[in-house]
Amino acid sequence: MDQTERVLAPFRAGGASIVAPVGDIRARLSGVRAFLFDWDGVFNTGRKSEGSPSGFSEADSMGTNLLRFAWWLRDQRSLPFTGILTGQDNPTAVRLAERERFQAVYRGFLNKRAALDDIQTRFDIRPERICFVFDDVLDLGVAGQCGLRILVRNGGAPLLAQYAEAEGLCEYVTGREGGAHAVRETAELLLGLTGDYQRVVTERASHSDLYRSYLDQRSAGAPVVLSPDDV
Questions:
Q1: Fewest CB within 10 A of the end CB: N or C in the chain?
Q2: How does pLDDT run across 78-116, given as a tens digit for each residue?
Q3: Cα atoms in the Cβ-side hemisphere of radius 13 Å centred on 41
Q4: Is domain 3-220 given the CATH code 3.40.710.10 in the classification?
Q5: Is 176 helix (H, G, I), strand (E, B) or coil?
Q6: What is the DSSP letter of 87?
Q7: Residue among 32, 48, 50, 31 nearest 40 (CA)
Q8: pTM of the model
């Protein structure tokens, strides 16, 4: 078994679908300079109840941090844009972005392509530079424009996965569902395919000088929180 297959084997065993050829995924990944995450159904199950906003897991939060650290190491100590794009007003999404110092939260966007246009204008990031992690129909318009697309599995929507694959709207479908560490799975996959996993985990685990430099730079920022009226 070669190195690529050693990386991919546990993801396949976990039920993931590797839709595109690995060479294509790696080529797309090499151009990625930004990570954009849907919220409901990605960081959580999407279930809502009165007074109980949808949340996130620390495992997924760590996944986003490892990804950003890896790209910081690879890209001349420059932080990648990281944002959340949600169709609802999710206060917990804002809290995560504030804590982790993401660059932006786009909330209440039923037309998510408007947010993508704003990202290009406000942050000078072309859609083909974005890795988009999403889960449902509302996200397909954005997925059609982004460079790398990760679809979070929803066991209740198998035809949606078939549709996204047939229409060329995703390169990978997670084995985990939203709320079951699908974001962490995504991060581990991407770090495995770039070959950065061991270094990133070792530096983070030792809280190395490099990691502290990254953390200092990350901590200096704060997210912009935007609604449709702002763009």
A1: N
A2: 999 999 999 999 999 999 999 999 999 999 999 999 999
A3: 20
A4: no
A5: strand
A6: S
A7: 48
A8: 0.96
Q: Which residues contact 29 (CB under 8 A, 6 or more apart)?
A: 131, 148, 190, 193, 194
Instruction: Tell whether the torsion through CA atoms of 141, 142, 143 and 145 is positive or negative.
Output: positive
**pLDDT at position 50, please?**
61
Boundaries of every domain in the chain: 3-220
Using pLDDT thresholds of 50, 70 and 90, give the confidence band for residue 54.
confident
pLDDT bracket for residue 46 (50, 70, 90):
confident
CA atoms within 13 A on the CB side of 198: 2
Torsion of CA 13, 18, 21, 26, to 10 degrees: -90
Give CA–CA dist 105/49, Å, rounded: 22
Buried/exposed code over 202-225 (b: 16+ C-beta within 10 A; e: otherwise): ebbeeeeebbeebbeebeeeebbe
